[in-house]
Amino acid sequence: MDISKASEGVMEKYEWIAKVLASKKAQDIISIDISEVSGFADIFFISNSNSESHMKALLDTITDALDERQITYTVEGRDSNLWRLIDCGDVIIHIFSQEGRKFYDLERIWGDVPILHYDEDGEPVAVLNA
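Below the sequence we write its predicted structure tokens.
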């Protein structure tokens, strides 16, 4: 897998995020390496939920895992049925509804940087734009 040198350590540090999302059946999990084009974060993790209750379960599971690891974060969009965001500093985790993901279309916005796709177990399977 070819990700930028700047984010290699961050990616390894947070690779467990895809596994946690997958453990709760998040759909279409990707990470986007924005380290060379952004000053506010290195990596986005993006996934879909299949319902509002599923979105809440994914949010709760990720925040519990962050708490266990004593990682500081903030949450935005708690009341949104389209999108929830967990900001961990270097890493930002987006949990979308199907409609929200289409509307915000982050893959298109950040389409010039490496995008890593994960399988249903949270294992990396393909890199695009590397």
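The longest helix spans residues 52-68.
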